[in-house]
Amino acid sequence: MHSFLLHNGSVLPAASAVLAPGQIGLLSGWGVFSTIRVADGVLFAWERHWARLRHDAELLRVPFPDDPDQVRRSLLELIEANKAFDATLRLVIVRNRG
Questions:
Q1: What DSSP element (H or E) covers 58?
Q2: Max CA-CA distance within the chain?
């Protein structure tokens, strides 16, 4: 496991208690996710992953970020913080309100 995670746009220590077991989105699987390959610090097929996530989020009525470039920059900041230039990254966007 890596030392840092990205939560709501902020890189935080992985030991931070940012997720609670009682979150409705986590309990019911109310969200979208994608597993993205990181090769030499580059997010593989980022545009394709983003388009699929956005489409699926619309279908499931999951609130979705407006700015793919900001999310991409945040993910690259996370990759740098973890020194995980060759890794697999899981991006999860969860809806926690009804």
A1: helix 46-60
A2: 39
Q: Which amino acid is at 1?
A: M
Closest CA relative to residue 93, chosen from 59, 1, 37: 59
pTM higher than 0.85 for the full model? yes
The residue type at 30: W
Tokens encoding 31: 């969200």
Q: What are phi and psi of 78, to 5 degrees?
A: -65, -45
Write out the two tokens for 80: 């740098």
Strand partners, 5: 12
Residue 54 identity (one-letter amino acid): R
pLDDT digits (tens, 9 = 90+) for 64-73: 999 999 999 9
